[in-house]
Design a protein that fits this description.
The protein is α/β, with parallel strands linked by helices. The protein contains 17 helices and 22 strands. It is globular and about 70 Å long.
Length: 468
């Protein structure tokens, strides 16, 4: 964080200082909420969770080097006491970003946010120092913590913004006002909470409404609900996609033999070829979104294409590909799942597995409400249409819907199986995998299927632990 004294911070957040011998002492390190992340110069934000109260760690974090604690009650060590720690954290983030000379890029969408954010960051940091959301910490706590990690040297601040209801993105954009706002797509993720795609579009569009007149709205020309958001902003509109009317578009899109996307990138200032290191054709749209942001910030088509061709995955369990010594390929995409990302992952599996036996180890997609049965059934059917060799549906009723969809589409007998839990899936795969097989593992985060991918990654064809 930019250096601020405890007195300055107290004034910004409207807090009272307690047990602070020197109000001029400065916070020079990061603002953190996890006591294990404290380093000398930190400010520790004490949140009260369902099982853990951060205030209980106050003395330990100060002993570890924290300058003070941002707390909701006195804790017997240097503290700034506020009525609400989350609100105070947001106020501090707002103050810091206003003092920065950085350009803020906000992005949202139903699918692909984290992968696209990682691409944007890898492209922009070739131009200037860039800070970006780690993983998918995109809520009212994670976003200000990311913003507060920026320093005087930061020139680009890339912030992923998530929403579970109307008004959430508006709130985040007020904390960290973006100059560039990117909307990737409007799908069915969290549709059970929103009530419908139109409501999701209303929420996602709050990002472009927050843009200043001299800003830029980067919108997906291939998604009608996103493209229509152009009417909701006074900022410049830049369209990306495969549509002929897109300002930044892809031509000659194809997949390499290994399943990596390649295409000709066209921008208003030129064109250049891209061959990505990531897997799956869905990354083309993500790459175009990143390219549109980078072009708006002054990068050439050649610079952007080079950066996209060299970019990798920065976040765990998102199409992580591991080649085992015995020739089995594990694709760990178990961080989360919704209908759009499930379809994209299955298509990537089909592309990667040409001429090989493919396994789709799938679990529940959460928060789909009344659409849950139909969406799980549709994913099971798609696995059959893509000629996935084996479907392993893991878990409860939603998994049974996945298997039923596959069965009704024409997958019989051993081609689809429903198992109770992750361990059952591990046992099945350990006994049946053969050299050359490709295994995709994907479900909503709550299912915990990353344990399947991790167990398979560590195990060779004969059940021995592979060399690391």
């Amino acid at each position: 964080m930019i250096a601020l004294s405890l007195a300055e911070i107290a004034a910004v957040v409207g807090g009272q200082t307690h047990d602070i011998p020197d109000p001029s002492a400065q916070v020079t390190g990061p603002v953190v909420r996890d006591s294990r992340e404290v380093v000398p110069g930190s400010l520790f934000a004490a949140f009260v969770g369902e099982r853990v109260d951060g205030h209980d760690y106050a003395r330990a974090v100060v002993e570890a080097g924290a300058v003070a604690v941002l707390a909701s009650r006195p804790v017997g060590v240097p503290a700034i006491v506020v009525a609400d720690v989350q609100t105070a954290l947001g106020a501090l983030a707002r103050h810091v970003v206003r003092r920065l000379g950085a350009t803020l890029v906000g992005l949202t969408g139903s699918a692909g946010k984290t992968s696209t954010k990682d691409l944007i960051a890898q492209v922009l940091r070739r131009k200037a120092p860039t800070v970006f959301t780690p993983g998918s910490l995109n809520n009212e706590i994670g976003l200000p913590l990311t913003a507060l990690s920026a320093t005087e040297e930061t020139r680009f601040l890339v912030l992923e913004m998530g929403a579970r209801g109307i008004g959430h993105i508006r709130y985040l954009a007020e904390l960290t006002p973006p100059r560039i706002g990117l909307v990737l797509n409007v799908g069915t993720a969290h549709i059970g909470e929103f009530g419908g795609r139109e409501q999701i579009a209303q929420a996602k569009g709050e990002l472009v409404e927050a843009l200043p007149e001299d800003g830029a709205a980067i919108l997906n020309a291939d998604d009608p609900l996103v493209k229509a958001m152009a009417a909701r902003t006074k900022a410049k509109v830049v369209l990306f996609g495969e549509s002929a009317e897109a300002d930044v578009r892809a031509e000659n899109v194809r997949l390499t033999d290994s399943g990596r996307p390649a295409f000709r990138l066209h921008t208003p200032s030129g064109a250049s070829d891209v061959t990505m290191r990531l897997y799956g054709e869905h990354h083309v749209s993500n790459a175009l979104a990143a390219a549109a942001v980078a072009h708006e910030l002054g990068m050439s088509a050649e610079e952007i294409a080079t950066a996209l061709s060299e970019a990798g995955s920065l976040s765990r369990w998102r199409m992580e590909v591991t080649e085992r010594p015995d020739g089995v390929t594990i694709v760990n995409d178990a961080y989360n799942a919704n209908p759009e990302s499930m379809r994209a992952a299955l298509r990537a599996l089909a592309a990667m597995g040409k001429g090989r036996r493919t396994w789709a180890v799938l679990g529940k997609m959460a928060e789909l409400g009344d659409e849950a049965l139909a969406e799980h059934d549709a994913v099971g059917r798609l696995a059959v249409r893509l000629n996935v060799s084996k479907l392993v549906a893991v878990g409860g009723i939603e998994a049974s819907w996945l298997q039923l969809g596959a069965y009704n589409e024409g997958s019989w007998g051993e081609e689809s199986v429903h198992v109770s839990d992750a361990q059952a899936a591990i046992d099945l795969l350990r006994s049946e995998l053969r050299p050359g097989d490709v295994v995709l593992v994907k479900a909503s985060r709550s299912v915990g299927l990353e344990s399947v991918a991790q167990a398979l990654t560590e195990t060779g064809a004969e059940g021995e632990v592979a060399a690391r």
